[in-house]
């Protein structure tokens, strides 16, 4: 609505028109509405009615006419009343028998318990329990079932049987709880199993443990110690240690490319290396060439910049100035702020060019990068070694840095230190302290917490101030998102609506960040609904296994991701009963053909072909909902457009599917992984920078933001200039 600037009509006017004049809504529907709830800010009108079909059907029209989103709910207050409290607290769960069932070489723990937990007492359970009763299905003894299930049944694949880690059963309730790493086919064949054995199967997860990629990474020995830089000097012996030059040079300033060179005395550190799209060999050569060009011309660039700054002619160069200029400049380190493609895409190429360069990054960034970029996942069977040479070399060269870690140089008053940047797991900001000068590179950041990841807000206290030069992510700096939890709440309302009417929703989000947030939220929310008696149409939530792998890495590494996610992973890594993890194999997406799906997969920057295939399978019904978050790169984005003419796209060609959500269905929802204007303001308040420069966004879009930042009291705001050296001190 905001994109198309639909004015928001006064609520009274809306209701008058809706009830008295609107012909597309039947009288029956109008009369059936028992209650209306609205939220002015979110532009949502919730109508409580049992006959809301024509509201759904004419929703687009309603949005266009009134500037409000119409949400239909069948039920209201009686849900709250239905909470009979059980007073049987003495009826605690108890184990009666503990034994082991021998399958292959793995003994599976088998427990008989009594007093089943409420958790397993789902609507689905009641449905099947009724079925068992009404059809008089005999309850097969547990041992007989296990023998048949593990050794005879062929519709459950061997792989899945081997992934079962624990079995608990409740004789009286006729429930078998299967704790397994994968459980797709058991779930798919639930009805068959129930009818065959006279038991209900509740499939749930197990703790995930150490991730395979982490184990594989640990097998490779590191080349550099963590104190490698402490013996390295930033200047020549004859230079003045109190006067170390700091300069910055943007290598690329185009969408989804992030690479700067930070000059610290005679050292050159790459700030990220989002250099080029994959499969565009010419571009790769081009971008790396700019780095080479920089290194060759650096003395010249510095001289020119010095002259400009001091307004003196080039001929008047003093001895002292020349001493400060590096003789044979090279790349001395690469700092990777996080593992998103637009910051890391050039790494493989760079390591070929500079095989000995140390790489500073967080452990989780390395793990996630390896998981997604290397062929590790494609090595189907043997998941224990990283095979490709470049990736082995990258691992060898890494020096791990984490929140609060300091990397010292030989000059003790100079160091680098690192702080959580929010944005995604493992994302770090880098503070450079050169004597009394402080330079901060934020990488991509979020100030607020985006469930379940902590934003910078929690860590800014640790950074000493004032910042002399702040190089900050400007991606969404000119936007205003509003409250993030409201945004998530709106999305939930919206998806619940979709689920009630059997529509499909596709969410393509970065597997390691947004997708996890979404998954977690859906899981909690729909799980709650599922446990309620009157919730009929629980959606099938399918999550690409890639997302699960990422969760495993994140959980394995990161204690700072607070609360819910770690509990989810620890207790219910695989809550199949509401969320099903599947490998999204392009050639076999038939499981998505049913209705009422919420599908969480990758954004197109990782596998745009997959997203397109999913769209083809779930159909291009306008009621299907597609939301792609995360960076969408030019080429894949374009491919999607060409391959999908029937889908309505926005004017912003770069984000065709997000537009489907924002413009058409729910324009009030803005969930993004970059900070908006308000969060930028909070950063400026906390860091008190003297000078601010942006990256990650074109200068053109930032002129207003620059004015805004100046008004906050910042002395100088500069917009990025491509391949122009700036001396900061
Ligand atoms: Zn990012
Ligand atoms: Zn980025």
TrEMBL record:
It holds the Pfam family Lactamase_B. Transmembrane segments: none annotated. This is Metallo-beta-lactamase domain-containing protein. GO terms for molecular function: RNA endonuclease activity. It comes from marine sediment metagenome. Coiled coil: none annotated. Residues 256-474 form the Metallo-beta-lactamase domain. InterPro entries: MBL, Metallo-B-lactamas, RibonucZ/Hydroxyglut_hydro. Gene3D superfamilies: 3.40.50.10890, Ribonuclease Z/Hydroxyacylglutathione hydrolase-like.
């Amino acid at each position: 609505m905001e994109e198309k600037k639909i004015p928001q009509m006064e609520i009274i006017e809306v209701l008058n028109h809706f009830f008295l004049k609107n012909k597309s809504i039947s009288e029956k529907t109008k009369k059936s509405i028992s209650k209306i709830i609205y939220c002015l800010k979110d532009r949502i009108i919730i109508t409580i009615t049992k006959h809301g079909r024509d509201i759904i059907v004419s929703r687009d029209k309603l949005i266009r006419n009134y500037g409000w989103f119409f949400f239909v709910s069948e039920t209201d207050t009686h849900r709250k009343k239905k909470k009979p409290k059980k007073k049987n607290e003495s009826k605690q769960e108890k184990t009666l028998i503990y034994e082991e069932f021998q399958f292959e070489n793995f003994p599976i723990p088998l427990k008989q318990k009594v007093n089943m937990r409420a958790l397993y007492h789902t609507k689905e359970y009641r449905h099947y329990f009724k079925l068992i009763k009404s059809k008089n299905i005999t309850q097969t003894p547990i041992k007989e079932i296990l023998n048949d299930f593990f050794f005879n049944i062929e519709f459950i694949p061997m792989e899945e049987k081997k992934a079962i880690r624990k079995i608990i059963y409740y004789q009286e309730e006729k429930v078998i709880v299967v704790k397994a790493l994968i459980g797709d086919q058991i779930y798919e064949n639930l009805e068959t199993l129930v009818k065959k054995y006279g038991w209900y199967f509740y499939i749930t997860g197990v703790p995930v443990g150490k991730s395979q990629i982490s184990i594989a990474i640990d097998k490779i020995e590191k080349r550099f110690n963590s104190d490698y830089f402490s013996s390295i000097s930033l200047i020549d012996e004859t230079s003045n240690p109190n006067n170390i030059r700091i300069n910055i040079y943007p290598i690329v300033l185009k969408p989804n490319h992030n690479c700067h060179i930070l000059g610290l005395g005679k050292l050159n550190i790459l700030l990220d290396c989002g250099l080029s799209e994959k499969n565009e060999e010419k571009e790769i050569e081009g971008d790396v060439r700019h780095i080479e060009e920089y290194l060759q011309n650096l003395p010249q660039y510095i001289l020119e910049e010095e002259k400009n700054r001091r307004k003196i002619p080039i001929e008047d160069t003093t001895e002292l100035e020349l001493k400060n200029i590096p003789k044979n400049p090279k790349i001395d380190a690469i700092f990777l702020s996080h593992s998103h493609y637009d910051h890391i895409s050039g790494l493989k190429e760079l390591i070929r060019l500079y095989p000995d360069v140390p790489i500073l990054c967080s452990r989780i960034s390395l793990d996630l990068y390896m998981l997604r970029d290397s062929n590790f996942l494609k090595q189907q069977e043997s998941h224990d070694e990283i095979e490709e040479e470049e990736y082995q070399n990258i691992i060898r060269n890494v020096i791990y840095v984490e929140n609060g870690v300091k990397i010292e140089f030989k000059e003790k008053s100079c160091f680098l230190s690192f702080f959580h940047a929010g944005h995604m797991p493992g994302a770090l900001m880098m503070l450079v302290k050169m004597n009394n000068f402080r330079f901060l590179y934020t990488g991509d950041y979020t100030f607020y917490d985006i469930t379940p990841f902590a934003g910078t807000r929690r860590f800014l206290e640790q950074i000493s101030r004032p910042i002399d030069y702040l190089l900050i992510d400007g991606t969404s700096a000119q936007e205003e998102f509003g409250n993030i939890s409201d945004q998530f709440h709106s999305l939930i309302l919206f998806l619940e609506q979709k689920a009630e009417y059997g529509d499909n929703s596709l969410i393509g989000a970065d597997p390691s960040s947004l997708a996890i947030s979404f998954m977690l939220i859906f899981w909690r929310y729909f799980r709650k609904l599922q446990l309620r008696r009157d919730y009929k149409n629980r959606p099938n939530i399918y999550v690409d296994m890639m997302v699960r792998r990422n969760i495993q890495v994140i959980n394995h590494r990161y204690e700072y991701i607070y609360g819910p996610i770690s509990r989810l992973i620890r207790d219910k890594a695989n809550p199949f009963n509401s969320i099903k993890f599947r490998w999204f194999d392009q050639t076999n997406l038939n499981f998505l053909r049913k209705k009422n799906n919420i599908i969480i997969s990758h954004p197109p920057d990782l596998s745009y072909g997959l997203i397109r295939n999913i769209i083809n399978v779930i159909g291009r019904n306008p009621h299907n909902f597609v939301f792609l978050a995360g960076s969408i790169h030019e080429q894949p984005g374009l491919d999607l457009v060409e391959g999908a003419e029937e889908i309505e796209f926005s004017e912003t060609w770069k984000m065709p599917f997000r537009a489907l959500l924002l413009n058409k269905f729910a324009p009030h929802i803005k969930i993004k992984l970059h900070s908006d204007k308000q969060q930028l303001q909070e950063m400026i308040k906390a860091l008190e920078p003297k000078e601010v420069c942006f990256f990650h966004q074109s200068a053109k879009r930032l002129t207003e933001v620059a004015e805004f930042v100046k008004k906050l009291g910042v002395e100088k705001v500069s917009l990025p200039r491509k391949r122009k050296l700036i001396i900061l001190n």
